[in-house]
Write a structure and sequence with these properties.
By secondary structure, the chain is an all-alpha fold. 73% of the residues lie in helices and 0% in strands.
């Protein structure tokens, strides 16, 4: 019979569990913010859908939700930032700084969204051809991965700047708030 090491079965210390949870929730919040900013960029870039009429008279769904101009998206982002920062009692300076960061992120991601739309059109054209050019498809795939990598880098840099604008206590409060929605 093999010897059982009792240390393997001891419960993990509470502080280590809390630290692991914090890292997990930081990742979850970062992923949520990345998804939110990416969604905002997608909405900003939806002018093409508006120009072609889109579904249901140019809007997503019968109530017109989903397609907005850049100013509407920026307004929604500003409102979300104010709401989020109000919940952690952020100062006016912090609110202004985070607002600048989010605005800058939207501005820097807009060209990437345009390139993504161009790739999507190119993909449709490649697949509509009589013979399929696998080399061109692979090249387009690699370009899309490059765009995704660049967008991810810019989003993470923006998230780091936002985190630096907040105090550790405010970040912890935001993590606690977000954890209520993820379980």
């Amino acid at each position: 019979m093999s010897k059982i090491d009792r240390d393997e079965f001891e419960p993990e210390p509470i502080e280590e569990r809390r630290a692991r949870r914090r890292v997990f929730w930081l990742g979850a919040i970062a992923a949520s913010l990345v998804a939110a900013i990416t969604s905002l960029v997608a909405i900003v870039s939806s002018s093409e859908a508006r120009a072609t009429g889109g579904f249901f008279g140019g809007h997503h769904g019968p109530h017109g939700h989903g397609i907005h101009d850049g100013e509407t998206v920026r307004g929604h982002a500003e409102h979300a930032v104010r709401w989020m920062l109000h919940s952690v009692d952020a100062s006016q300076e912090q609110q202004a700084r985070v607002g600048e960061i989010v605005g800058s992120a939207l501005d820097s991601l807009a060209p990437l969204a345009q390139a993504h739309r161009a790739h999507r059109r190119a993909l449709a054209e490649l697949l509509a051809q009589e013979s399929i050019d696998r080399g061109a498809l692979e090249s387009l795939r690699a370009q899309e991965l490059g765009l995704a990598d660049e967008a991810s880098r810019r989003l993470i840099a923006s998230l780091a700047e936002i985190a630096e604008a907040l105090t550790p206590a405010q970040r912890a409060e935001l993590f606690e708030f977000a954890s209520r929605f993820h379980d």
